Amino acid sequence: MTEDTESPDIAKIAVEVFNNTLKEGETVDNAPLAMAVIAALTNAINRSKAMTMLHLNRDLDTAREAICKVDNSIAVQSLCDLFKKYVTRTWADLQNFVLLKEKLIKRG
């Protein structure tokens, strides 16, 4: 990634959001993991300075890699993959980057 398209601290913040959401939801069976992944990746979209799908995908990949360093379980990997597929599918439906980001952040 070039410097001007890179969104700062995506990885660090994704891990913080992931860990904080896990701590907040410890009382719910299996839900905290899904909530933590969705919250972390949605936050990455919100903080991303990307102006194209290519750059947004790179930011999501950066966040995914950081989350998987903290918890490399199959569940976390699968949740990240499903989220990214949802982003791609939503992009295919909308074809408007600004609306895409708004919709993903609102639904996240």
Description:
The model has no long low-confidence stretch (mean pLDDT 89). By secondary structure, the protein is an all-alpha fold. It has helices at 10-24, 31-47, 53-70, 74-94, 97-107. The relative contact order is 0.16. The two termini are 25 Å apart.
Compact summary:
76% of the residues lie in helices and 0% in strands. By secondary structure, it is mainly alpha-helical.
Features:
5 helices; 0% strand; 108 residues; mainly alpha
Overall pLDDT, averaged? 89
Number of strand segments: 0
Shape: globular
Radius of gyration: 13 Å
Biggest β-sheet description = none
Question: How many angstroms does the end-to-end distance come to?
Answer: 25 Å
Number of helices: 5
Strand residue percentage: under 5%
Category by helix and strand content: mainly alpha
Q: SSE string, helix = H, strand = E?
A: HHHHH
> Percent of residues in helical segments?
over 70%
Low-confidence stretches: none
Topology:
Layout: H1 10-24, H2 31-47, H3 53-70, H4 74-94, H5 97-107
Helix pairs in contact: 1-2, 1-3, 2-3, 2-4, 3-4, 4-5
